[in-house]
Task: structure prediction
Amino acid sequence: MKSKAESIKEEIFSLIKQYHDEVYGNKKFISGESTIPVSGKVFDEKELQLMTEAALDGVFTTGRFNTEFEKKLAKFIGIKSLITVNSGSSANLIAAATLTADELGDRALRPGDEFITVAVSFPTTINPFLLYGLTPVFLDVEIPTYEIDIARLEEAIGPKTKAIVIAHTLGNTFQVEEIHKIAKKHKLWLVEDCCDALGATYNNKHVGTFGDIATLSFYPAHHITMGEGGAVYTNNAKLKKIMESFRDWGRDCWCEPGKDNTCAKRFEWQLGDLPFGYDHKYIYSRLGYNLKITDMQAALGLAQLEKLEEFIRIRRHNFDKLKAGLIDLSDKLILPEATRNASPSWFGFLITLKPEAGITRNDLIYQLTKNKIATRLLFAANIKKQPYFKNHVYREVGELKNTEIILNQTFWIGVTPMINDEMIDYMIDIFHQILKD
Result:
């Protein structure tokens, strides 16, 4: 027999479904009136119900939903250890902080060390490494994959180089297997920013499993969302323990929230200049943070995770349909291509205008916007030219010719699961109207 609480919960869940259907039910697409987004959240009543269940649990920090989410996502990716954090930017912060740990000896990152990356970047891919005093070494990218050009990668490695830090751009993948081999050869850390590429594979292996540490974002624009949220993951047990410490205030203790004495000697430690027996739960071995998520966020992520494979399928379908529909404009547009050996989990559809297009990027974007087609630029495009970067020291290897082209001629449109075939047909038609001879 059901308890009164269980009956009330069932009634709440039924009302939530009715509310979802009333407020968020399918909206009809009207050409020229409905905006076609580049990204956004896709959800149904399941997300609202699980978040409500987490709220009813009365656990307002990390709890059972987070534990289940971490395990399920780690299994999907094929990684040993994954921990959630409150954003993708925080995930990159934890990645950078982890590699400064004293336990790593001569390989620990120190101020003045260098890391190899690209200038076509989202700021918080590289910002944490700048905060820890490292100097970026910029390489160019290739068009139309928009991934790092590895031709001069080994040339870029100098006596101060300690790491390679790169994002997989818009769901495509960089040549991660080849770069991993170079990193291993030169004893460099490899950090994969997978925030835009959850589900992408290279030689049938998930991105994020090649490097030492990888990161994800669950902002509403991404493949799955927690509203805010992210994850950092690794196959290295030592790095996992360090990651958790930096995320959890820098504490030395590794107990789960609400648990005590996992080490079985909670009052038998003597660390730093503290007295013997000082409570291990309040011993701090690192300059850490509190970057945990709430269980309501994890519940949202758990419901999203059940839809992830379908989301990826739709993104690939939308990408393929857009490319097929725009291929006859290849005399005016450079259309995106997957990296060889990659199976992308597309985040967006990148387009670079050719000089022959007869229109500027700004004019084209204006026309698309007027027709309710949303666009985005490729993040910072050339981060060296961003206002905040002007006082930062960097090194550059080779001319960043394609970086400059992207800065001036590249943009992207959406392939989000919010977009259906009718919307794609409309987008293709508008591109042809604008770019007709």
